[in-house]
Amino acid sequence: MSEVYDESLKYFQNHKNEYLEDLCKFVHIPSISADSSYKKDIEKTALWLSDYLKSIGIEKIEIFNTSLFPIVFGEYSKAGPEKPTMLIYGHYDVQPADPIDQWITDPFSPEIKNGQLFARGSSDMKGQLIVSLAAIDSILHTNLLPINIKFLLEGEEEIGSPNIVDFITNHKELLKSDFVLNLDAGMIAPDLPTITYGLRGLAYFELYVYGPEHDLHSGLFGGIVHNPALALCEILTGMKDKEDKILLPGFYDDVIPLSIDERQELARLPLDDDFYKSQTGVNLLVGEKGYSSTERVSARPTLDIHGIYSGYIGIGPKTVIPSYAMAKFSCRLVPRQEPARIYQQLIDYLNQNAPKTIRWEVKQLSSDTPCVIDRNFPPTTRFSTSLEKIWNVKPVYKREGGSIPIVSYMSDILGIQSILSGFALPDDRAHSPNERLNLDLWEKGVKTVINFILSFTEAAD
Amino acid sequence: MSEVYDESLKYFQNHKNEYLEDLCKFVHIPSISADSSYKKDIEKTALWLSDYLKSIGIEKIEIFNTSLFPIVFGEYSKAGPEKPTMLIYGHYDVQPADPIDQWITDPFSPEIKNGQLFARGSSDMKGQLIVSLAAIDSILHTNLLPINIKFLLEGEEEIGSPNIVDFITNHKELLKSDFVLNLDAGMIAPDLPTITYGLRGLAYFELYVYGPEHDLHSGLFGGIVHNPALALCEILTGMKDKEDKILLPGFYDDVIPLSIDERQELARLPLDDDFYKSQTGVNLLVGEKGYSSTERVSARPTLDIHGIYSGYIGIGPKTVIPSYAMAKFSCRLVPRQEPARIYQQLIDYLNQNAPKTIRWEVKQLSSDTPCVIDRNFPPTTRFSTSLEKIWNVKPVYKREGGSIPIVSYMSDILGIQSILSGFALPDDRAHSPNERLNLDLWEKGVKTVINFILSFTEAAD
């Protein structure tokens, strides 16, 4: 592929400032999905994006309205039906800029300082979208693409993608592809190109513990009723043992053990305990016995309390025995744990362990299925080769502690696996003030995607 | 004392409707201390009360202003310096009438129905004050009193008596007496005249548990940091064992064990588990092993959580690891537990048991010393005899689970023991809508106090 590749790279080198200007226009529109007063800006962004797709040579473009914000679809099919189709997933909405007063620049007036582009959405993920678009444009200026490409670009990712499942379910034929390229997963460090191959799932619960009929005076009734706040503490405390094993009955039954080579791969990640201490500000780490911190945050299931409430929490003393107590907590899941089974295990645990002196009620508030992508999925291996070509370093394979639900949706609804990667850094301050994009990595990203797309020429040759 | 006694009783019988009218005037003024918009009404009540004292023959009357509401002082000293002095403590302020819409009468327009006077303050404790004043007036109409009397009547009891300690401390000579008569403690049942001889103390704490520097994403960091909400649950759960013994080191060291005859006396109280279940609405009672429910709520120390807070407690799921957690809790104390020692025991417990993975901070928010009055304190025995004369039943001796701080203040600052009794019933709905006073008990109360005061004539004879 060397001649076409060189031409494309050269084109990009000569025009990268224009692509950067395009990105600046893109981030200038405040497409904040969490705040409905930005609805017009989101719609403007969707239009801007569909125009941009048209300008680089994508033929079939359609904007689908949802109950909230539009989905932009695009398709390039000149490679011909015998060639593979790549579905590029992305989102064009951004997080709110709050707290505004902590920004050193205007969040929607992009500025470059020390090789970084400061703006809301620069890293998450408008910059990542322009990576793919610049790569495609750079190739198309001199050649055809050796593969077909589809685009699925949504405007609701930062608010949990409320319409994406419906859309995917109703457009299976339209979205039919061979693999997904999702550049929303980032990289570990500037010199470590990264493939994310696993995502934890989630089972989120709200538990209520009810005691006396109404709040009681602790002087008059203290000593004879089981305080529901204490009962809640007992229930929550009982869910873990001293080695941080989770005690819901059967909790680990479905967990696929980590293989030896997977553990070796995870051990290569430059994430030691000092790193985690500096990120969290705690002096002593804890965790499940027998696993490293990296394994604990990404490849092992966990249980965390997110909120507790009971009784009087205002200023000063009030001597009340509360009538109820509430906790929100969730389990992060790993393959093949199922949220519905975890819910049943919680019910079993409560039936066996909750004191008979109180009444409890539990609700499942949300759930995501965990997923692991085969590290040997051919498109992933191919993308890894492209990363290695540009960085001259073997990419690391990591598992992500959080969930990216779209990856499960693509796999479960469409049967398509994803390549999960990207060029954002952990300290790009996504979701925080002073979000920024490292422009050196952004450039390498464009070159990687050019290399990746053109690698199919060779394959086809 | 029979002739004077008969005269006084007869006078009261002939004039009880007038005393009742006086009480109606007294409760008509809305002396609500919790709401500053009633300040003028409180001051009006203090004036009304001082006029009333004057009208029944109390000579030395003074209204002391405080930073909030006035204290009414009065003194009768015609018995002569060799005779004992009784200090009558009472409060003329009342609770707010809310929720107003649940009243069947106007809370400040007293009405008599089925032998009960409905009005805010009728039972707690304007009716109890008129008991003493009617008794004194009934005697003074034909005779001198055989003892000296002082009055300490405050207008801030329902808001925690913020000025009483200062006042007592600065007026030791003025208040010098031999015993206190405090009729704010009520009786257990209409046919069971009651002496309250013990009050629990209180040590109230606020505990903060600090984890990560800021809230963390549970997907990215779940599994390696000790969740402070869970750490708080562990700390609180660890404070009690399965038999409801409190595990603060040395917690029971200072507790005076209940004597056999005290337990027999408490067992006489008509308070069985069904009573406590109906009062609390719980199906199963709990409590410290080896003690009855009555002992548990009144004569044994306890630990109760009043409030807990951590993290996200709004609607829906939010996957945060909170940076801190907070709990408010208190111990009810019995003689001779000291709040300051309990604080130290809590610190010791935390030093020994709080996980090293979190940081904690504890504050003592309030404290009351527990007290037990010698059941053989001669004025108490004498009052008990008067109760028995009127009811033809031996009075019961009970311990109260809550604290009445004024009793400790009198004892600790002035060195004066209190007779704690009264003619209010548990279902008089003090602090609730439709407060009422049982007029039969009120009448018996006046006769009891007449009998009690005149009993000193005999003693002096």
Account of the 3D structure:
Chain A is an alpha+beta fold and 461 residues long. The first copy, chain A, folds into 2 domains: 2-199 and 371-460, Zn peptidases (Aminopeptidase, 3-Layer(aba) Sandwich), CATH 3.40.630; 201-255 and 301-368, Alpha-Beta Plaits. Chain A is 38% helix and 21% strand. Chain A contains 14 helices and 18 strands. Chain A has helices at 2-28, 39-56, 122-140, 164-170, 172-175, 218-221, 228-237, 260-268, 273-280, 293-298, 339-353, 378-391, 405-414, 439-460; strands spanning 60-64, 71-76, 85-91, 111-113, 116-118, 148-154, 179-182, 194-199, 201-210, 216-217, 302-311, 320-321, 324-333, 359-368, 371-372, 396-400, 418-420, 436-438. A 6-stranded mixed β-sheet of chain A has the order 1-2-6-3-7-17, with helices on both faces. Chain A has a 4-stranded antiparallel β-sheet with strand order 11-13-9-14, with helices on one face. In chain A, β4 (111-113) and β5 (116-118) form a beta hairpin. In chain A, α1 packs across α3 (122-140) and α3 packs across α14 (439-460). The termini of chain A are close together. The model of chain A has no long low-confidence stretch (mean pLDDT 94). At the A-B interface, β10, α6, α7, α9 and α10 of A face β10, α6, α7, α9 and α10 of B. β11 of chain A pairs antiparallel with β11 (302-311) of chain B.
